Amino acid sequence: xxxxxxxxxxxxxxxxxxxxxxxxxxxxxxxxxxxxxxxxxxxxxxxxxxxxxxxxxxxxxxxxxxxxxxxxxxxxxxxxxxxxxxxxxxxxxxxxxxxxxxxxxxxxxxxxxxxxxxxxxxxxxxxxxxxxxxxxxxxxxxxxxxxxxxxxxxxxxxxxxxxxxxxxxxxxxxxxxxxxxxxxxxxxxxxxxxxxxxxxxxxxxxxxxxxxxxxxxxxxxxxxxxxxxxxxxxxxxxxxxxxxxxxxxxxxxxxxxxxxxxxxxxxxxxxxxxxxxxxxxxxxxxxxxxxxxxxxxxxxxxxxxxxxxxxxxxxxxxxxxxxxxxxxxxxxxxxxxxxxxxxxxxxxxxxxxxxxxxxxxxxxxxxxxxxxxxxxxxxxxxxxxxxxxxxxxxxxxxxxxxxxxxxxxxxxxxxxxxxxxxxxxxxxxxxxxxxxxxxxxxxxxxxxxxxxxxxxxxxxxxxxxxxxxxxxxxxxx
Length: 477
Description:
single chain, alpha/beta, Rossmann fold, nine-stranded antiparallel beta sheet, eight-stranded mixed beta sheet, 27% strand
């Protein structure tokens, strides 16, 4: 009798438990379906700098949750998550590719998510706010169809490298032949719009110039987008060959005025444009947007100092970093063997971390980060860049030159680089040039406050309208 009663009680308890579990699951499922899907965004404060993070959550199969991570201020979008777990009022998201974990708790209304973002040695508070609509950056200058000009997908061949490059050619819909320009991107793998930090400066530039009667070719870097070839292992000289192939393609087009073809180069593109113009007489003009006038090693040291100060770092923090950079440059100059250079630079960086990083032993993520940085430093591109002297080519340029820098440019400091560009042009006997240091503008030619790269993604303006006007007016003259 006792056994039978106990069995009955257990059955009743089991039934109650199942009912309670069903109730909890139903409540959780209701919260998921009605409250959680959408974009959750908020600022992450790292060393005094705010970086927005966005979790895009949606329903997966079998009533599970899926998510991607965006960092719009860093130009990162759609980073896949490796795990999304929801329980009661809490959420845990793991992003294995960047060693990040976010754990947070929803408020009762499911409008905010308060928690911690952990990545490497960092553990930082992060409050996310819900929006049913997908988070979207406001970029008012980006053109919206229908467009009042012709837009054509094109490809052209770099015969020397044996690769096909893909791009977009925009031309006025009537008239012609037109003056034309090739846009050359800055350093790093870039698509045809030079897309970074949520901005598409080459799209905005091409749109403006085409509306002013100028044909524009912009293309994906080799190995990027629809272009063939391999980006890794390529140097500034290889990228110059690609740009030159685009120039030849333009000159063969029936609607292009071959007597009015030139280049616009931004940042590293401002090295490439003079390099090509120094060896060709059919380049009729070049425009340098934040183009370097100093060697790469000088620029890197200057930008390290300036950006660090803009982010509030002190001399005590900056000077050791500058010493480390100089030591790395010394290794690269003296050690041509990549494996030996890798060993030496890795030791320099680990010693630096031990002394100034705040940890007695570098963690796994720090070691992985060092390995990635060292691979970049011993790459053919970096070795070429730190030795590249722009004046060697600027002094041989005979066509008209327009060189512009923003006053707040911390990546290619304006005064020193513009002065070096002018000296080289004068030395070479080129009297047809214009030098402009533009007040209030940063490296991307946005109106800025400090000029730091941490501002790029937060500024809604993509490219200063007055600079667009200066470019088109100068070309058309």
